[in-house]
């Protein structure tokens, strides 16, 4: 009997320790929850699963879709727009294309509602599985951006959008996208510039209309109003703005520009907000290169009351708050071997790709990129695949085989903010020799920073990043014996210098600089090692 009691005691102690450890594990998380260029998040829940979409602008495929069980750990499961017929991006300027999607679930269908500012305007696509495939777009003849769809209790469907003077609502036929009742201006917000990003929630007999104000820069914020009638008038929340860092509480925060949010209720009844923000390189150093990212905060929303975000309307990089039971995903590998027949979801093209310029099967274990006459300086479909820079501190490297026969043929790596702001680490022919170059494009300035002659047709290229600078390395020995080629300030790839709405992308590319070419670049592997800050 004593032995049995001892066993029971040990089991009870073990269960208590596990429970304590589990409670500790659920207390706190790191922001941002989706790192690197992922702005304008919109979220929905279906049973115990959360799904989220973000803006993708001129990159293809369009509109990445993420999945989570706990709101903290996210994994990309696909894209909404994967076919050229869904997403015409030819000649889309930098930071054009797809703006501010919304993601909703209604009667067995997922809906992504978005705007292609480079062709077509407002649309929505549907799917029974958020991983896809998604339908062709249903177009809505309303000239605006930042659309959402709201279904009222009586079954009517409303299209909610941004207008110059405020938020507008129009009833539509969800089967056709046709307008049933004309648009009506319902609320202008609290007076901030650029009232946008509208989402409507029906709760406790009220229509709550949440929007972003102040512009998607340092004065950004989230505000909310409510009304007993969908068309208003809307009463402004006395706590407005309910989220902002454009005040004394937020002035020293490493996170700036918070706004453009969406809310979701978890299965346990708790409310949460996902929203965009950006990490500046240093405290009070107002430069950011990673783009706008997706952040998470708890929301206290009592019955009949107003939502309050994280107690005081600010957030931090480390959030010491209770969470849902955490269910992390397996960490992504550092090395991409290019052994599969398709690229992973993290890889993107710049605009609609010329598909014959790429192959993962021509040479086993290699990504082949055929040089295009289009250069990195053009707003066009350059031959390049790229992925997001997700941390200030990182290492990226690749092994390149390339046999340039003409001086105009080049291949290599690039850090690309847009077609007028990029740093290129490249391999090319120059006269009778082959060289690696570090080349810079900043606005109207373009010049070669450094150049070194190399032997053979194989080089290793590496870029290391910190908050202050990028360092560029190469090796032509076949081993990872890197030599420093040069360094560049991160500031000139920041949004504050380059403008636009995206973040730095790390690309593998090949170009023949305006002339026809059949030159082929073969990339054997790609390493990406982010170091969380």
Automatic annotation (TrEMBL):
Name all Beta-xylosidase C-terminal Concanavalin A-like domain ranges: 335-528
Give the UniProt keywords, A-Z.
Glycosidase, Hydrolase, Signal
Q: Which domain of life is it from?
A: Bacteria
The record, for SUPFAM superfamilies, names: Arabinanase/levansucrase/invertase, Concanavalin A-like lectins/glucanases
Indicate whether Hydrolase appears among the record's keywords. Answer: yes
Q: Which InterPro entries match?
A: ConA-like_dom_sf, GH43_C2, Glyco_hydro_43, Glyco_hydro_beta-prop_sf, Glycosyl_Hydrlase_43
Q: Which CDD domains match?
A: GH43_XynB-like
Q: Which residues form the active site?
A: 40 (proton acceptor), 196 (proton donor)
Main enzyme class: hydrolase
Q: What is its EC number?
A: 3.2.1.55
Q: Which GO terms describe its biological process?
A: carbohydrate metabolic process
Which Pfam families does the record match to this protein? GH43_C2, Glyco_hydro_43
User: Which Gene Ontology molecular function entries are recorded, alphabetically?
Assistant: alpha-L-arabinofuranosidase activity
Q: Where is the signal peptide?
A: 1-19
Q: Where is this site: Important for catalytic activity, responsible for pKa modulation of the active site Glu and correct orientation of both the proton donor and substrate?
A: 146
The entry's family comment says: Belongs to the glycosyl hydrolase 43 family.
- Spell out the protein name for this chain: Non-reducing end alpha-L-arabinofuranosidase BoGH43A
Gene source species: Petrimonas mucosa
